[in-house]
Specification:
This protein is mainly alpha-helical. It contains 4 helices and no strands. It has helices at residues 4-14, 16-24, 29-72, 76-91. The relative contact order is 0.08.
């Protein structure tokens, strides 16, 4: 019989196939529950990381557009007006 960590990794990695393996071998129900919890937690973490990466891409695009807007302004007066307009939008 494998260690609890081995069994948990099998269930986490192979899902239903691992459940069939567990049914053929005497394993405590707690091990299966822990492995299932680990798999759910891994899924949640991966999903949140994917969302953060997508949000980061959008942030980088907005930052590039903002920088292009600033560089297109010719004078310090135009830059100051743009800064004030942006600040007002952020504060409302």
């Amino acid at each position: 019989m494998g260690s609890l960590v081995d069994i948990a990794n099998i269930v986490k990695t192979y899902g239903v196939k691992a459940l069939n393996l567990v049914q053929k071998h005497p394993v405590e129900l707690g091990c299966v529950a822990v492995a299932g919890g680990m798999a759910l937690d891994d899924h949640r973490v991966r999903k949140s990381l994917k969302q953060e990466r997508e949000k980061n891409v959008l942030y980088q695009e907005a930052l590039k557009k903002h920088q292009a807007e600033i560089e297109s302004l010719k004078t310090d007066i135009e830059r100051e007006e743009y800064k004030n307009r942006l600040w007002e939008e952020l504060m409302t």
